[in-house]
């Protein structure tokens, strides 16, 4: 079964939803188990009921509240929300930087709670605040990161050649990283996130602080990720960009998933045409129930 296209993915998700044991009376249990195992492997990133509370100055903030979603290979999922909605906290839990109070995440079927190192090797992360090692050349730095991820040196050089071409950094490879402009540094950090060829990419505010050319680079990068069949999560405040970039959206507010679906599903559920209007409604009716459009 191919899962390259979004249409394929939608069919698979529908099939998984329909094939609950209760509905599969005629199926032998091993056939059902096998089918579900095959399809669940296609959910490259799965988040199950993640919850995180912080206590600060005697107040408890529920930063992420029972959050669940899944992303398939070749799919770009926009995790969107206003300031303080819980986006970064969610990414930090998926990356294993902080432990959830409850719930868990699975990357390519590997639970981050019980096997964090294997799970991390399957994740790539790019953030607007990424830095570079100023005294290393770009080539040294990228090969160093490949080595940290345990990539075989021959394979790392090959991978670097391919990515340098895609992101147009061949001319920068022997420059000291500290001498790069903001846009050049951005392209290098985008390559760094992919050097170990992870099946899941997390992008946190990837266009923050970039000019038009930088934003176009991100768009090109994301279409490259889609073509490579990566499962991609993009966190951003730029709802206009998200509409153009993402296949599916999760709208977070106060740590809760308020709506989830593709744009036409969200339009149907909210009665609004654009994400910005949907958010406007959310902010003005903050006790909205959770709705999943799919
Ligand atoms: N270490 C912490 N200690 C206390 N509170 C925290 C901590 N980290 C996050 N929070 C709180 O959790 C909530 C969610 O924060 P988070 O950074 O995840 O939001 P966000 O959606 O990424 O926001 P932004 O778009 O502004 O980056 C906020 O109320 C924030 O103040």
TrEMBL record:
UniProt key word Transport: yes
PANTHER family found in the cross-reference section: ABC TRANSPORTER ATP-BINDING PROTEIN, ABC TRANSPORTER ATP-BINDING PROTEIN NATA
InterPro entries linked to this entry: AAA+_ATPase, ABC_transporter-like_ATP-bd, ABC_transporter_ATP-binding, P-loop_NTPase
Protein name as catalogued: ABC transporter ATP-binding protein YbhF
GO molecular function: ATP binding; ATP hydrolysis activity
The UniProt record lists the keyword Nucleotide-binding: yes
Keywords, sorted A to Z: ATP-binding, Nodulation, Nucleotide-binding, Transport
Domain ABC transporter per the UniProt entry, residue ranges: 45-279
Family according to the record: Belongs to the ABC transporter superfamily.
Domain of life: Bacteria
């Amino acid at each position: 079964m191919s899962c390259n296209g979004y249409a394929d993915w939608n069919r698979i998700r529908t099939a998984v939803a329909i094939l609950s044991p209760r509905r599969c009376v005629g199926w032998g249990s091993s056939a059902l188990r096998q089918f579900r195992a095959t399809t669940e492997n296609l959910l490259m990133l799965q988040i199950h009921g993640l919850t995180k509370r912080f206590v600060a100055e005697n107040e408890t903030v529920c930063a992420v509240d029972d959050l669940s979603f899944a992303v398939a290979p070749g799919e770009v999922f926009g995790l969107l929300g206003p300031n303080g909605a819980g986006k970064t906290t969610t990414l930090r839990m998926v990356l294993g930087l902080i432990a959830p109070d409850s719930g868990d995440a699975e990357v390519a079927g590997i639970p981050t709670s019980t096997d964090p190192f294997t799970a991390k090797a399957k994740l790539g992360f790019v953030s607007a605040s990424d830095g570079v090692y100023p005294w290393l050349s770009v080539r040294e730095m990228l090969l160093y990161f490949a080595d940290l991820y345990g990539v075989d040196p021959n394979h790392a050089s090959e991978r670097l050649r391919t990515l340098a071409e895609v992101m147009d950094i061949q001319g920068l490879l022997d420059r000291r990283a500290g001498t790069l402009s903001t846009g050049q540094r951005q392209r290098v950090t985008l390559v760094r996130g992919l050097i170990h060829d992870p099946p899941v990419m997390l992008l946190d505010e990837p266009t923050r602080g970039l000019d038009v050319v930088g934003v176009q680079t991100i768009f090109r990068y994301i279409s490259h990720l889609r073509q490579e069949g990566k499962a991609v999560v993009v966190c951003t405040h730029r709802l206009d960009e998200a509409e153009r970039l993402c296949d599916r959206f999760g709208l977070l507010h106060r740590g809760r998933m308020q709506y989830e679906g593709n744009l036409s599903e969200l339009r149907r559920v909210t009665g609004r045409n654009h994400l910005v209007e949907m958010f406007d409604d959310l902010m003005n009716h903050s006790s909205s129930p959770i709705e999943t459009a799919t």
